[in-house]
TrEMBL record:
Cellular location(s): Cell projection, Dendrite; Endomembrane system
Record protein name field: CSTN2 protein
CC per GO annotation: cell surface; dendrite; endomembrane system; postsynaptic membrane
Any single Pfam family the record assigns to this protein: CLSTN_C
Name of the gene this protein is made from: Clstn2
Chain ranges of the Calsyntenin C-terminal domain: 289-631
Keyword Transmembrane helix recorded: yes
Keywords for this protein: Calcium, Cell adhesion, Cell projection, Glycoprotein, Membrane, Repeat, Signal, Transmembrane, Transmembrane helix
Residues that span the membrane, as ranges: 571-592
Source species: Anhinga anhinga
Length: 691
């Protein structure tokens, strides 16, 4: 009675794997039962579902001593020595194929590690090829030139882990412990294991997966005589500076490394080591007290393997029903993993019944991806005096960090074709962050005149730390969004020579799970208001304040002129007002010109009409053809009207013409026509009266 597929949703806590399982032997007597339940998690990261925070953040979370130096950081502008190494996805895993090594720059690790220090690393390593395998260097500090002395080193040789420490010569010129050897099967099993080397000279202790191991062999050696030869620290190979024609790498490592750190001056406690290597998923037993008599059980350190033994079938059945799976990660790795195998021993025989393996699997669902949003005032201006003050100006006084997840609602009564229109629900969720960066956009900060500052008292009581540079300010550590908000709201910008600076731009970005989930890029522009009005007007574009944030701008009395105290409108408002003003002016000008042209045309027409109506008959001579009434006896009134219309068209033409001769000829024709008779004069009078 067991299910092949066991579903696990993130945040479900501990769920039983086989709540109804029982072993049926068909009444065959048995003397003992041996059952093994194993989580198969080799395909996940470093062997199981662990938090994927950076080593620095994890150490801060587990309460480790400060001062750890990461020797295999992600490649960046300041940590470029790992840029040429092979990397596996974004799990901070580096693969070494026996052909490459990395030089750690001088100054990263102090030369004197003191008598107490700690080396930690994750390693996956297989058997070395060949009968007489070479040393495979994990970490090595040797002479850079001239000689080939190894000062300290951690390497693998024939599936043995060896730590070398050659002390410098001092008053006592005696043999001292120099090489510490451990022989463990896990060194060459091609699985991930967590190693911690605690050095408290002359005692060196190894922790592997949280378990302590003492060296099986310790050899002594003479101390190294002092010299002025510089030393070279390397990872993945050892630097051979002498005894060769040209210095080069040697003793290459074959395998995978991650989270390699060294902490000078301090050793780690058992509690911190267990926390650093702890799996976030594993097998568990609900209610250990009610397991029953005669049940023996054993977990491996990572709780991925559980072995149960008993001589009573019913007790074993009850114990198996209490076995559960738990994954405490908020965002676990999705996938499948589980295997159960059993052996039964009968009386007087080794194995009498063959029990088939249970081929079941736990399906861990993908968690809803959070959307991290940073909001707040993204633009403000302050007087130069505030930037030059001892405390400077707070950059992010009202910053907010909110994380939401999108969930689809599937009501039962919805039909299949309506699924596409299901409502989307945004739910706010709380989770940790592991770093927030405030980056400078544009030219880096000039340390001689400006800086970003934070009182380190703000970090007390939190799992946070901070680093400062000319490129910006970085806050890191696994802590709540609320604590990150509190610290970000205290970061100040100072500029004690503001005369040449009018604005500064910054960008804020936060992360969860070492970049697996990142926030939006929140951009901030800060404007510096100078005291003179001319400067203000010359650089008005640098001092624009968003309207919704006007209440955040407070100017001290007398610090700036009256022009500054008024609200500066936005660029969009100014442009709209100018455009509307130009449009109104153009329309007004067009209407005015049209009306002027119309009035001028009316005046010309009236002047022409008056000239036509005022006849000067002082010098008028009329000659009448006495034969006209005999030559044209049949002229009708219609013909006279047609002539009048033609004369009218000629009159209109004469008004538009500029030549005086044509006007005079047409006027004479009109004069002759007017004198033809009373009836014709009346008709003509009506035609000459203009509206």
């Amino acid at each position: 009675d067991w299910n092949k597929r066991i579903e696990y949703k993130p945040g479900s806590g501990s769920i039983p794997l086989f709540p109804s399982i029982h072993l049926e032997t068909c009444d065959g007597p048995v003397s003992s039962i041996h059952t093994t339940i194993e989580l198969q998690t080799n395909y996940i990261g470093k062997g199981c579902d662990r938090e994927t925070y950076s080593e620095k953040s994890l150490q801060k979370l587990c309460g480790a001593s400060s001062g750890a130096i990461d020797l295999l950081p992600s490649p960046s502008a300041t940590t470029n020595w790992t840029a040429g190494l092979l990397m596996d996805n974004n799990d901070m895993i580096f693969k070494f194929d026996g052909k490459q090594g990395a030089k750690i720059p001088d100054g990263i690790v102090p030369k004197n590690l003191t008598d107490q220090f700690t080396i930690t690393l994750w390693m996956k390593h297989g058997p070395s090829p060949g009968l007489r395998a070479e040393k495979e260097t994990i970490l090595c500090n040797s002479d850079k030139t001239e000689m080939n002395r190894h000062h300290y080193a951690l390497y693998v040789h024939n599936c043995r882990l060896v730590f070398l420490l050659r002390k410098d010569f001092d008053q006592a010129d005696t043999f001292r412990p120099a090489e510490f050897h451990w022989k463990l099967d896990q060194i060459c099993d091609k699985e991930w294991h967590y190693y911690v080397v605690n050095v408290e000279f002359p005692v060196v202790t190894l922790y592997m997966d949280g378990t302590t191991y003492e060296p099986y062999l310790v050899t002594n050696d003479w101390p190294i005589h002092p010299s002025h030869i510089a030393m070279q620290l390397t990872v993945g190979a050892c630097w051979q500076g002498g005894e060769v024609t040209k210095p080069r790498f040697a003793q290459y490592f074959h395998g995978s490394l991650a989270s390699l750190t060294i902490r000078p001056g301090k050793i780690e406690s058992q509690k911190v080591i267990s926390c650093l290597q702890a799996c976030k998923e594993g097998l568990d037993i609900n209610s250990l007290e009610s397991l029953g008599q005669g049940i023996k059980y054993h977990f491996n350190p990572s709780q991925s393997v559980l072995v149960m033994e008993g001589d009573d079938i019913e007790n074993i059945n009850q114990a198996l029903r209490k076995v559960s799976y738990i994954n405490s990660r908020q965002f676990p790795t999705a996938g499948v993993r589980l295997k159960v195998s059993s052996k039964v021993q009968c009386f007087g025989e080794d194995v009498c019944i063959s029990i088939p393996d249970i081929d079941a699997y736990v399906m861990v669902f993908q968690a809803n991806e959070p959307k991290i949003t940073i909001s707040g005032m993204d633009h403000f201006a302050r007087p130069a005096a505030q930037f030059e003050s001892e405390r400077g100006v707070i950059l992010l006084p009202d910053i907010r960090i909110v994380s939401t997840v999108t969930k689809m609602e599937h009501p039962v009564d919805l039909k299949e074709h309506d699924r596409a229109s299901n409502p989307v629900v945004l739910e706010e969720m709380l989770h940790n962050l592991d770093f927030c960066d405030i980056l400078v956009i544009g030219a880096e900060l000039d340390p001689e005149q400006e800086c970003l500052e934070l009182d380190h008292v703000e970090l007390q009581g939190k799992h946070l730390d901070a680093t400062n540079s000319t490129a910006g300010y970085s806050i890191y550590g696994v802590d709540s969004m609320h604590n990150y908000e509190q610290v970000l709201r205290q970061i100040r910008y100072r500029n004690w020579y503001t005369s040449a600076t009018f604005d500064r731009k910054f960008r804020v970005k936060c992360s969860e799970l070492n970049g697996r989930y990142t926030s939006n890029e929140f951009n901030l522009e800060v404007n510096i208001l100078h005291s003179s009005n001319s400067n203000f007007m010359d650089h008005v574009n640098h001092m624009i304040v968003q309207p919704q944030f006007l209440q955040s701008v407070h100017h001290p009395e007398g610090s700036i002129s009256a022009v500054h105290s008024s609200v500066v409108p936005s660029v969009a408002t100014i442009v709209i007002i100018i455009c509307v003003s130009i449009l109104i002016f153009i329309i007004t000008l067009g209407v005015y010109r049209i009306r002027t042209a119309h009035q001028h045309s009316s005046a010309d027409n009236e002047g022409s009409k008056e000239n036509e109506m005022d006849w000067d008959d002082s010098a008028l001579t009329i000659t009448v053809n006495p034969m006209e009434k005999y030559e044209k006896p049949h002229q009708t009134e219609e013909e006279s009207e047609e002539e009048d219309i033609e004369d009218e068209e000629e009159d209109t033409t004469s008004t538009e013409s500029d030549e005086s001769e044509e006007e005079e000829e047409e006027e004479e024709e009109e004069e002759i026509i007017i004198q033809k008779g009373d009836k014709q004069n009346a008709t003509r009078q009506e035609q000459l009266e203009w509206d």
